[in-house]
Amino acid sequence: MRIGYARVSTDAQETHLQMDALKRAKCLRVYEEKASGAKSDRPELMKLLDSARKGDVVVVWKLDRLARSLRQLIDTAAMLNERGVEFNSLTENINTTTPSGKLTFHIFAALAEFERDLLRQRVSAGLAAARQRGRVGGRPKALTDAAMKKARALLRSGDYSKAQVAGELGVSRHTLWRAILQEGPSR
């Protein structure tokens, strides 16, 4: 069975163009939705995915109607493929029921994976460059070197408990103790 999916982003828009194309593509059932593609909660798409069975073909007017990002598109198509459901995008002429359609889709998938790998490399390179400049990510230390010096002096005097020193420095006792342990033996 050919199952269509039509989506527009707002209530002010209409799906007439998509619905006409899906009827010409001989879709026996069409799920129509007015929801942003960025939303992960699209009830009609979920219904379509639940009802699609092995041997069915999910048809969309254009790829961006099914998914907002390439990653989302590939994940959705992979889920359909695992269930034996084919995919057809009318505008881009991608039809996974044909060898050339499968090739086209796999090229898109390979490009998406390539893009993810490049992004991962750029992020790693950026973090390494920041570390070389002395910038360390994450939350700043609760106790500065001066505060630690003061804490050690107060604790060595024996006149203050850890709780009192922590209160004096404006941190919890646990934070003070963790900082002392991380610092290692007294300086």
Polypeptide structure, described:
By secondary structure, this protein is of the alpha/beta class. The protein has two domains: about 1-105, Rossmann fold, CATH 3.40.50.1390; about 145-185. Helix content is about 55%, strand content about 10%. The chain has eight helices and five strands; from the N terminus they run βαβαβααββαααα. It has a five-stranded mixed β-sheet, sandwiched between helices. Strand 1, helix 1 and strand 2 form a beta-alpha-beta unit. Helix 6 (about 145-155) packs antiparallel against helix 7 (about 160-170) and helix 7 crosses helix 8 (about 175-185). The mean pLDDT is about 85.
Q: What keyword list fits this structure?
A:
alpha/beta; single chain; 187 residues; elongated; 12% strand
Q: Structural class, judged by helices and strands?
A: alpha/beta
Helix count, per DSSP?
8
What is the topology, as strand order, of the major beta sheet?
2-1-3-4-5
Low-confidence stretches: none
Average predicted confidence as pLDDT: 86
CATH architecture of the largest domain: 3-Layer(aba) Sandwich
The biggest beta sheet, please? 5 strands, mixed
Instruction: Briefly note the CATH topology name of the largest domain.
Output: Rossmann fold
Domains counted in the coordinates: how many?
2
**General shape:** elongated
Name the CATH superfamily classification of the largest domain.
Answer: Resolvase, N-terminal catalytic domain
Element order: H for helix, E for strand: EHEHEHHEEHHHH
Number of strands: 5
